[in-house]
Amino acid sequence: MTIIPNSMEGRDIAYQMHPNVNLRKYEKTGGVVIESGDGIYVFDNNGKRYIEGLAGLWSVAVGFGEKRLVEVARAQMEKLPYYHTFAYKTHGPSIELAEMLIQMAPVPMSKVHFTSSGSEANDLACKMVWYRSNALGNKDKKKVIGRIKGYHGVTIAAGSITGLPRNHESFDLPLDRMVHTSCPSYVHFGQENESEADFTTRMLTDLEDLIIREGPETVAAFWGEPVMGAGGVLMPPEGYWEGVQKILRKYDILLVVDEVICGFGRTGNMFACQTYGIEPDVLILSKQISSSYMPLSAILMNDRFYQPIADESDRIGVFGHGFTASGHPVATAVGLENLKIIQERDLVGNAARLEEQFLSRLAELAKHPVAHSSRGVGLLGALEIKPFDDAKAGDAALTVTAALEKEGVIARAVGEAICFCPPLIITSEQIDDMFDALERALDAVAAARA
Ligand code: PMP
């Protein structure tokens, strides 16, 4: 396809450097210009309609074009478009959202601190872990354990806790305080003749061995997503979270749970901590907190985490951290209204009710000759594709997602998996539309290779 220089696509190539692309390839191919959205759909500048099978970036819970959020943002912009939360000032939207989050939290939490992205929230939570260790006089207890294939963002600390080579290579990451334990995905890392229970035991042994090798007195925190998202929708094996928490308690290691994707209904419960029985010290939230209509994230922390930090700020004279946009009034007002919509429309219940259909359709499609297996929880799922046997044929999952895009569905290929995470407002009929299109895409790929 030739790209006309003064078209939107041509100007995009000329001026914008995009995240998460091969920059040289982008210079040649450009991107699809998405122009508008409505419900579960987005439309490109040629008027083509797509089901947003990933809810943008796993985030637009209430769908595109929710007028209540537009109205709340407009009203807040008129009343107080900006104010900060520094220097002993505060404002209504941040107070109300903080109160609501503490009331909703899956375990007793003490305080909320606002940031604007998942990366910022994880990065700051990591700084707070270090600050807290210093406050307690544990100057050597600073190491953080992440997991291979875990994703917590791309800033320096968060990117270091992330366990994906592409986010480390040539960025000089990870920092040497960050170590990574095994990825608990049974389908990917289970050994031949190893039962799921044995696999869980091996994952837990790996974790405990790592802690002992590093020295428990040097390990401050463990970081994990209940279900790994960007790593490819990787499910925790039976008994994993229970076992992890036992080990962390044994060695006095904090548990930071990153529910940036899972939070606010994705797994069929308000929080995945409820789905998997997890009791975090720190809970990281973003994405569906505002359906991504405004950049917003939140760090929820329990008293055991907060109190030493407050003491340390008192000793120093100030908690020396904060962003211009911390608790931004328009973002927090939109977040508050978005959570009210999630509750009033029972979108968490919608995810729970549609889970069976969503997962069983994926499981049916896993029988397709091109496919390997399926997995998921709530409205978060993946179809694993069989790799093409000849390297020249390219990447199998990318080939299927390209065919799927032709069929009018946007999904995300990660490794050999095609990930689905549709808006929580999706209906039963729309799930069928989405997976009917996937079936046509799988057929097209199979036919092209026959
Ligand atoms: N944590 C998780 C679990 C995520 O999925 C993401 C984003 N996909 C992040 C953190 C980083 O969020 P952001 O892109 O807003 O920095």
UniProtKB/TrEMBL annotation:
GO terms for biological process: biotin biosynthetic process; gamma-aminobutyric acid metabolic process. Keywords: Aminotransferase, Pyridoxal phosphate, Transferase. CDD domains: OAT_like. The keyword Transferase applies. Its cofactor is pyridoxal 5'-phosphate. One of its GO terms (molecular function) is adenosylmethionine-8-amino-7-oxononanoate transaminase activity. It holds the Pfam family Aminotran_3. Belongs to the class-III pyridoxal-phosphate-dependent aminotransferase family. This is Aminotransferase. It comes from Agrobacterium bohemicum. The lineage of its organism: Bacteria, Pseudomonadati, Pseudomonadota, Alphaproteobacteria, Hyphomicrobiales.
